[in-house]
Amino acid sequence: MKRTAFSALGRRTAEPPISWLMKMTLDHPHLISLAAGFTDNPSLPVREVRETLEEILRSPASGPPALQYGSTVGDPLLRRLTAERLRVLDGVKPARGGGDLYAPERLLVTSGSQQLLYMITEALCDPGDLVLLEDPTYFVYLGITQSHGLRCRGIRLAEDGLDLDYLAGVLEQLKRQGELSRVKMLYLVTYYQNPTGVTTRFEKKVGALELLRRYERAAGHPIYLLEDAAYRELRFAGPAVPSALACAGLGERVIYAGTYSKPFATGARVGFGLLPRELFSIVTRIKGNHDFGSANLLQQLMARVLRSGRYEAHLEEVAPRYARKAAVIGQALRAHFPASVRWMEPQGGMYVWARLPAGLKAGLRSKLFQAALARDVLYVPGELCYADDPTRRKPAHELRLSFGGGSLPELRAGIARLGEVLTAQMG
Amino acid sequence: MKRTAFSALGRRTAEPPISWLMKMTLDHPHLISLAAGFTDNPSLPVREVRETLEEILRSPASGPPALQYGSTVGDPLLRRLTAERLRVLDGVKPARGGGDLYAPERLLVTSGSQQLLYMITEALCDPGDLVLLEDPTYFVYLGITQSHGLRCRGIRLAEDGLDLDYLAGVLEQLKRQGELSRVKMLYLVTYYQNPTGVTTRFEKKVGALELLRRYERAAGHPIYLLEDAAYRELRFAGPAVPSALACAGLGERVIYAGTYSKPFATGARVGFGLLPRELFSIVTRIKGNHDFGSANLLQQLMARVLRSGRYEAHLEEVAPRYARKAAVIGQALRAHFPASVRWMEPQGGMYVWARLPAGLKAGLRSKLFQAALARDVLYVPGELCYADDPTRRKPAHELRLSFGGGSLPELRAGIARLGEVLTAQMG
């Protein structure tokens, strides 16, 4: 029979590496997965959700409206509480006049922050356009850039965030090549980054925005900073860093992507964005075409969870649990991994990034990966987290280890097995 | 400052007419809206949702998993029960071998059926491609075609569905023009259509699929029928019509878009699609990029609502309420509308389509619309439901009247006022 005529986007949309990893999990029922980005199951807010939904549904005033359509932009209370919360987290006072970056009118509720990343990319990027992003970066975002036919430039990442000199060099090179007009944004995962655990220092956000601003004239249009703050609230050590919105005079170029999915309940998938005014209406229209608004019941749930104080209480309960898991995986890494493997103590989020000696390969087809699988332990090969960028090779000697989902014994056993495999491989 | 460089999609994504109508509602607090596509508020399944969520969340076996990520394709139980239910509705026996169109593996769970419409369009259509659709059609779908830069051809609609001779004529014309290779699908809202209330006879589905099949050779690829069955389960009169999936030997070209949003709870927004195998993996990947799966909690909710029989019981409770509303709006139309206005008694769904004498204009800028607004009554101008199609003019003398959301007194009063305005206008 004749073949389906897919669109260019359809043809470009590749099988995500994650589905291959998930298949591995199904095929190996006794597998310890250090790959999945699951949150801590025992601390999921079952009681809080149960009580709050009961409050909503038992009242004739709130029950039926929660089961009816809301608006495309989202529930008014949720928008207000979320915007206020961000202002407080950033320590920024309300601005006078129309320039308030934390105005609820700039807040769009989405289905997880992932939907916002998708819609922003749709709104700004044509095939062939350029997105700058961290080396390495969140690999699901790479699925979006790939499906939209975008070109990527990876920016070197230091332990305190983006290498600004490297960013400056890339921008300068793109300017020389006459490619700046194709650069639409810089995508950064700024808190306990997926996959490296790196948090971007505030001064680096300022520096990045200043650099982008400097090249805007040559680009002929704004170059946005898309700040993905998905893990921001899973902090258990180190200082609280304000978002890029707080960069005085530069925050108007920031698209802030946040979520209640990771810190509260991934099964509820309530995310949001704070958007520059000039983007807000277009992205809202796109949202209207996608689904004309996220599920109202879950928005009402999140609004009440925030208002009642249950959200803050939950965060305080969760932080020590992740801290404990991070400590346990750290102990196990010190005990079982060869000394030549480099990794960084996490301060939040759920990932540890391990760098093997440069010659050793960790990819899906590597001996290491296969040997780990034979010992029933799974990790994410680091090379999956690098964009296709013709200006550099993808490092192949890194691995992402998640400590969010596993129990303490699983973390210990998983790292011990992986350590044995590594030791054997490294002879 | 320099202007934002939106993508072509961003630039094409127009303000939806619905937001203008919603603004009207806000500006006129005493307005009776016969425009909004709301469902019947008092019969929303608050008790059913409350009990089911309580069941899920009180059990340690089901509570935490419901608040954790699910898979991109959707909850296994929900997929199975939904696919089985469709098979029963269609009265089709399980096929042997790999050709079973109702296999749960073909079912993708989405955020309302709207998200499926968006992703199917993304997967199949490039700018300039052609979509055939009913004249008139669901206007939110027109937002999708517009943002993707698609060309549309409107197919005349009779009281029992698509005018097949007209469809044949359009296909023949496109063949002559060498445009068939750009035709990707025929989009039909087959049950109690939004906006006309028309239900497509089963024989017409067969006829449409046969026609599409006949032109596939010249097109060089499959031409799909995207069957939007959003209102299927809101039936209160007339026969139960099988879906296009049941068209023997032709169902493999059918993309079936269904939803629990309209018949159960729009605030939960659980939709689904049954997809041809060759589309399933690409659309699932696109879904992965959109949001890697709809909210798990709501999927668990719907799965249990189906399994417990609460869903069927709810449908039986809801049908007479819509029947009553349809009867009341019918009585009011007979009592208050001039005899020259044509409309069709609804058998399901929530819309009545009224045709004024051809000279009279009903559009947003018409005297009629303004006069109605001055009397605090709002309708959807029919012209908003017609695609841009250079081969015909958009009729301007029609209106869509919703009876889903309004109370019986509101429906009576709204139609009475509109009748007075019409009588005055028609002199």
Describe the protein in words.
Two copies of one chain form a homodimer. Chain A has 427 residues and is an alpha/beta fold. Chain A has two domains: 8-44 and 313-425, Aspartate Aminotransferase, domain 1; 69-308, Type I PLP-dependent aspartate aminotransferase-like (Major domain) (Aspartate Aminotransferase, domain 2, 3-Layer(aba) Sandwich), CATH 3.40.640. The first copy, chain A, is 42% helix and 15% strand. Chain A contains 14 helices and 14 strands. An eight-stranded mixed sheet of chain A has the order 2-9-8-7-6-3-4-5, sandwiched between helices. In chain A, strands 10-11-14-13 form a four-stranded antiparallel sheet, with no helix packed on it. In chain A, strands 1-12 form a two-stranded parallel sheet. In chain A, a hairpin with a 2-residue loop joins strand 4 (151-158) and strand 5 (161-162). In chain A, helix 3 packs across helix 11 and helix 13 (367-374) packs across helix 14 (408-425). The longest helix of chain A is centred in the C-terminal third of the chain and has 27 residues, at 310-336. The radius of gyration of chain A is 22 Å and the shape is globular. Chain A starts with 7 loop residues before the first helix and ends with a helix. The mean pLDDT of chain A is 95. Chains A and B meet through helix 1, helix 2, helix 3, helix 4 and helix 6 of A and helix 1, helix 2, helix 3, helix 4 and helix 6 of B.
Largest interface, C-beta closer than 8 angstroms, per-chain residues: A-B, 87 and 86 residues
Overall 3D form of chain A: globular
Query: Into how many domains do the coordinates of chain A divide?
Result: 2
Mean pLDDT of chain A: 95
| Sheet/helix structural class of chain A | alpha/beta
- Tell me the radius of gyration of chain A: 22 Å
The count of strands of chain A amounts to 14
Oligomer: homodimer
Query: Helix share of residues of chain A?
Result: 40-55%
Per CATH, which architecture of the largest domain in chain A?
3-Layer(aba) Sandwich
Note the main sheet of chain A: 8 strands, mixed
The helix-strand sequence of chain A is: HHEHHHEHEHEEHEHEEEHHHEEHEEEH
Low-confidence stretches of chain A: none
Instruction: Strand order, main sheet of chain A: write it out.
Output: 2-9-8-7-6-3-4-5
End-to-end C-alpha gap of chain A: 53 Å
CATH topology of the largest domain in chain A: Aspartate Aminotransferase, domain 2
